[in-house]
What does this fold into?
Amino acid sequence: MTANATRVLVLNSGSSSVKYQLLDMRDGSRLAAGLVERIGEETSRLTHTPLATGGDKREREARIAGHEEALKAVADELSADGLGLDSPELAAIGHRVVHGGLKFTEPTVIDDAVLKEIERLVPVAPLHNPANITGIRTAQALRPDLPQVAVFDTAFHTTMPEHAARYAIDVETADAHRIRRYGFHGTSHAYVSRKTAELLGKAPEDVNVIVLHLGNGASASAVAGGRCVDTSMGLTPLEGLVMGTRSGDIDPAVVFHLKRVAGMDADEIDVLLNKKSGLIGLCGDNDMREIRRRIDEGDQRAALAFDIYIHRLKKYIGAYSAVLGRVDAVAFTAGVGENAAPVREAAVKGLEELGLAVDADLNSVRSDEARLISPEYARVAVAVVPTDEELEIANQTYALVSN
It folds into this structure.
């Protein structure tokens, strides 16, 4: 890697989309960002923002047949800003990979063996890993000479002890089929737990944090001294908190009941629990702003959905307080966690005996900065910490290739 190679392109390839950011690792600044969506549909859309030049956002709509075409379109947009993939200043491409199993505990330079292992994990991440693999192969074809780095959503959670990671099922069956709790949103939990420690003026190894990543997908983690010791998502992202369209924790026998009584097959139940449950299943909306608007108008169905959502959050805060023994901070992050003041207030209300409280005035402030929203007398800090998964991926990628 040459001395002037200080840029990292971060790619997040979904089944029908590619999110990307180009960052300058000298200061972590963003040079460009964008999204290609509806890949493979009749009308696809590419949105590109040239942040380095301060230019206007550019949008174009046309059919983009596949990921190779999508990444070529991204390369064209970057080239138009003088930031092309052929630039000698590009040090590496960092890829978000959802599932790394137990093998990948840290960012990894991608070679054939790594790709084969990511493919081997497709059965436990059928919705995510195939799209990640497609993005990697396409990027490799565009820049075969450039280091490609996989940063795994599951890696941060591989520090969980066995008693937290194992399910209480037959050990031989579990091991044969790689059934255990892996956790997800790891790059966010790593970034936010570290930033929370900085906010408190302490080193990460001196701080115990409960991180609440609340977006359309939602997860909680218990982080002791910078290491994850428990997290709410499990074998898949379905377990845990109530989410936008996912049920979170349910009695496993619900699946058997639906098969026997409702005549539903495995695929139908999968769709029900992943796409038609959570907030949207409870009240028909998965946008917290809309749910709060309906509550203000007296909508009882929306109010019940909100109460169920908060009840589950409180259970995890309480459980992780017990797991950690000592809690220094609870940090809210992601779309709902960063922007929905009523969620933060309700989640903490009634937990004063655990040392938690929220200052109403501080909680009502909207800001893009990490901040405390708890009163000075609170024994446990309550923080709002905007997550930055792209920066975390870029940092981990650049640290690996520069070494």
The mean pLDDT is 94. The two ends are 10 Å apart (CA to CA). The first strand starts at residue 7 and ends at 13. The CA atoms of residues 359 and 376 lie 9 Å apart.
